[in-house]
Design goal:
binds S-adenosyl-L-homocysteine; single chain; alpha/beta; Rossmann fold
């Protein structure tokens, strides 16, 4: 099922070498949480990148996936996951399934992951990969995630992997007290800020983490 790029297949030594460099790049860019690194070592990014870009799966760069979307840069995935401070009993909502890579990493750290994409095709292909990988604690849903998932709410953690102009109100409402949301905020096509929102007993604390660049959060369902 997984298409491979042209050229001779990698030997197991070459693959091991690439994976080692991948983990080294994560650490050198600030991903230091051992649980996050272990999850990223376990989940093979090579399975989430198809076609001509498969060859670059272990490089620290975003890559194109179907429906004109992108799989995020691994170090950004690592830093966002680290900022989310996921506990083993947590229920996590991800808005923006894309390739499914981020959800697969969260599945190693949380009790249950709900992941939502506005493209049916992306949700279907990611769900198929989760099945192949025997990952049983991810529920994949096609929906406009800017409304969250009212039926499954509230969530301990929420991660948004597409940029909104502001943290969407319904997502803030669906966060438990003490809960954390990580969301890129800003205009598309411009540098955005990664924001960590913590829900307190009385309101929300906002912390700006770093500049990032994500595809925009778009309302409504996609065409594919
Ligand atoms: N987390 C992904 C990368 C996400 S790219 C990964 O690990 O590969 C951003 C994704 O957000 C795209 O797939 C896009 O379709 C999705 N998206 C954008 N707006 C959305 C919305 N309103 N609801 C749900 N998904 C949305």
């Amino acid at each position: 099922m997984t298409e491979r790029s042209e050229g001779p297949p990698l030997t197991s030594e070459e693959l091991a070498e690439r994976k080692m460099r991948f983990l080294f790049a994560l650490r050198s860019r600030g991903v230091t949480d051992t649980r996050v690194l272990t999850a990223m070592e376990k989940v093979d990014r090579g399975l989430f990148v198809r076609g001509i870009f498969a060859d670059r799966a272990y490089e620290d760069m975003p890559l194109p996936i179907a429906c004109g979307q992108t799989i995020s840069q691994p170090s950004v995935v690592g830093l966002m996951t680290q900022a989310l401070q996921v506990n083993p009993r947590d229920t996590v909502l991800e808005v923006g399934t894309g390739s499914g890579y981020q959800a697969a990493i969260l599945s190693q750290l949380a009790r249950r992951v709900y992941t939502v994409d506005r493209y049916r095709r992306l949700a279907r292909e990611a769900a198929e990969l989760f099945r192949q990988l025997d990952i049983a604690n991810i529920t994949t849903i096609t929906a406009d995630g800017s409304h969250g998932l009212p039926d499954q709410a509230p969530f301990d953690r929420i991660i948004v992997t597409a940029a909104a102009e502001d943290p969407p109100g319904p997502l803030l409402e669906q966060l438990k007290p003490g809960g954390i949301m990580v969301v890129p905020v800003g205009q598309s096509d411009a540098v955005q800020s990664l924001i960590k929102v913590t829900r307190t007993a009385t309101g929300f604390d906002y912390e700006e983490l770093r500049p990032v660049r994500f595809v925009p959060l778009v309302e409504g369902l996609g065409s594919e």
